[in-house]
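Tutorial sheet, problem 5. The two components below are modelled jointly, 499 residues in total.
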Amino acid sequence: MQTDAQIFSGAFTSPVLSSQSVFRALMDGMARPGRVFSLVHDASAPAPACPSHAALALTLADADTSVWLSPALAGSAFARWLSFQTGASIVSDRMVAMFAFVSRKDALSDWNGFSLGSDTYPDRSATLVVEVEALSGGIPLIAEGPGIDGAVSLSPIGLPADFLRERALNRSLYPRGIDLVLVCGSDCLCLPRTTRLMLEEV
Amino acid sequence: MSALATYNFAYLDEQTKRMIRRAILKAIAIPGYQVPFASREMPMPYGWGTGGVQLTAAILGPDDVLKVIDQGADDTTNAVSIRAFFQKVAAVAVTTRTAEATIIQTRHRIPEAELTANQVLVYQVPIPEPLRFLEPRETETRQMHALSEYGLMHVKLYEDIARNGHIATTYAYPVMVEGRYVMDPSPIPKFDNPKMHRSQALQLFGAGREKRIYAIPPHTQVVSLDFEDHPFTIQHFDRPCALCGAEGVYLDEVVLDDRGSRMFVCSDTDHCETRRAEGHVGPEGMPSGYGAKEAAE
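Model answer (structure tokens):
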């Protein structure tokens, strides 16, 4: 019963206006990569999902989308919460997922296997929502590309060891590629495929 | 409850908004690439800006201030009816002032005033495919974009030069976005093309009938196609605005009678009104406040 109560509650109190404000923040974030922004909402999903997982799932997922969950999320009540609240189909095959939600409990060593889109339809690629330990305070990185005036500095903590290499590889596939949203609590940071990342030289 | 309670906020149902929002995110991630979307029938005909209206409806919130322009003017039929539509279905605040707006939906112009980072410019697009008049088959144009094969477009511009001595395209002038996708900027005059380059505002393009959404994020490179020996140039006007005296703005020709008299005035009505309120007077204009005394009497 306890679990069921968790699954049936936690959606936006005001679904129309909250999903608009969450989307608008995400849109601005995607248009201005590397910048940390907050989602203002009252959604909550069962652990180990974080508030941003909940808000972005409610805003973007529905019966038309397929969602892949990292092992910690897939094995939790969040999977049933997501099915009940959004109607999205949860898939185990990375290749068919439009969205992937990754918990920080799963140190995902590789992001291979997600759809990169095709040269003719590069929009048919996955968007990954990856939880990290923190969005600032880590090793300083420099981001450049569309949406960024010159360069912007970011320093998330909890990225995979070969993150820069993976993103450089992803960038080299352009216009194909995976788009990333790093989340922590209700804060987010977007790294679309166009963003070039490098270590800040000290 | 009013009868309008039967409509969702901003007219579209939530599932449609989510579909459009997902397309917008991919459009921003791939600047200049046309993302297909399941365009809905809107309570206005195709060609009246259904693509722009769907984009606006998907991003609009209750705190937004909406401005709608048609050929630069706030007071033309298309602009008035779309503005009234969103007042009715979203109870959103509207304005004619460019500086006050958070969302500007436009048909065929970019405002003269420089846009800021907290503004979104939504274009109404009739034909999103820049290669369509050169290659009618969607399967082929899609492949051409995939291969970045834009030789045909350069041939078209070259033929312009061969026939006319210069590139005769004056509106919907093709641009290269971030060095990858050739994009149709919608039928804005080429005068406005440089404003798209590294704009601070996010620019979204919606084509309702053709079911495409594309975007230019802020600070993105947008280069008008040209040749080294025939560089891109914008239109120049040999006179200032007749009403406000502005130079370096896009002017509309207004026919005054059937004897050939005409005047040239700012196409951007808000820009013209703002300048006149500041005291600028053009060669055929009246000082600000002229007529107010008579009206009061």
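Marking note: Helices of chain A lie at 2-8, 15-31, 51-60, 71-74, 77-86, 163-172. Full credit if you identified this.
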